[in-house]
Amino acid sequence: MDRKTLARAKHFFTVGILWIHGTIVACQPQTPTWTVAQQDSLQWHYTQKLHTQILKNKALASQVQISQEGIRLFASAPKSEKYSAEFFLPWEDLLAYQQWLQHAPGAAELAYPRLPSGALPSPRFFPPPTANLPLRGWRIALDPGHIAGDMAMAQLEGKYLKIKMPDGKTVAVFESELNWFTARLLADALMQDGAEVLLTRSAFGLTALDIPYQEWWATYRDSLQKAGQNLAGLTAQKAFFETFQKRDFEARVQKINAFAPHLTLIIHYNVDAANQPWQKPTQKQESMAFVGGSFEAGELQKPEARFHLLRLLLTAHLAESIEVCQTVLTSIEANLQIKPVREPHQQDFLRQHALPTAAPGVYHRNLTLARRVYGPLAYLEPLYQDHPAALAQWQYRQLDYNGQKIPNWLAEVARAYHKAIRNWAQKKAARRL
Ligand SMILES: [Zn+2]
Question: Separation of 159 CA from ligand 1 center, angstroms?
Answer without folding.
Answer: 7
